[in-house]
């Protein structure tokens, strides 16, 4: 709906609200009951002049709070917050809270909105005090899941991972949604990374394990655990974790391959590593797998490496694959041919460099780095390596 359309609907809603509101208070005189408040006409005038904010202000003044107009006040407050006029949203919601006639249920609804206002205004202390107070007094109320969700949002924003884990665990007991389960697993991974930075390996591994207990599909936890195990020189255990990560989500194979190669080379040489690459390439060929295999074949038999690459490119053409093919040809060529190939190699190299490597499956945000939380839509675990002709 366009903004103008929204205001027309709001205007109709306000009129109905005013009409209903004027019926309820029995104490008012007959004259009061039948008159339209001047604030209402003031609002209408602002609306006609496209002064939307002033229009809402006037409408708020014209409406008295009662059970019939409660929802309209709540909607107006939210509208202010969405327009970025947080102080006005806070005023409307606090005005509602000050009314003795609102019920306990309505009071909690307003408090939830007020907590969102505080968070939007960056008043995180006030938001957390309000929400914690609600969580302790409104236990098992119908709003418990909403209260806990807002608290988790707040601790996530503050990057207070221990608190986010505590409340997030309560939340998935209360309302076990897929999104919250995924998010909680990533909070454990964030804690694990903090431990890792302090070289506290044991609690770091424990947090990665907790992440996997919460969400067995959390590929980040397996990759993270492998990194810690590598730091502890537990290469065999790291290999197990990395192979598990490839099973959890084969889309991350380009992230897994270099780590796996490193771990294998430290214990068993490249035999098991090549076997793993070949098995994975049989299941689902990707550029990263093909490139890793070409690299290996190059060390043993350059001619075979070239044949293998051409065969793979016929089945799965990728820009990075073509770049590698030119590189192989470059070594065998001379004179003008070599110069031309060198120019082509450089141009394709620039093209590959310019392409993003990772993309959010939720909002489409793309970048050169892997972010476990999308910088744009803030979802966890939605950014993955790009595949296909231009990707991995
Ligand atoms: Zn996103």
Automatic annotation (TrEMBL):
Annotated compartments: Cell inner membrane
Binding residues annotated for Fe cation, in chain numbering: 360, 363, 374, 377
Highest taxon in the source lineage: Bacteria
Domain LapB rubredoxin metal binding: 358-385
GO terms assigned for molecular function: iron ion binding
Pfam family, one: Zn_ribbon_LapB
TPR repeats: 185-218
PROSITE patterns assigned: TPR
Function: Modulates cellular lipopolysaccharide (LPS) levels by regulating LpxC, which is involved in lipid A biosynthesis. May act by modulating the proteolytic activity of FtsH towards LpxC. May also coordinate assembly of proteins involved in LPS synthesis at the plasma membrane.
Stated name of the protein: Lipopolysaccharide assembly protein B
Organism of this sequence: Marinomonas transparens
Gene, per the UniProt record: lapB
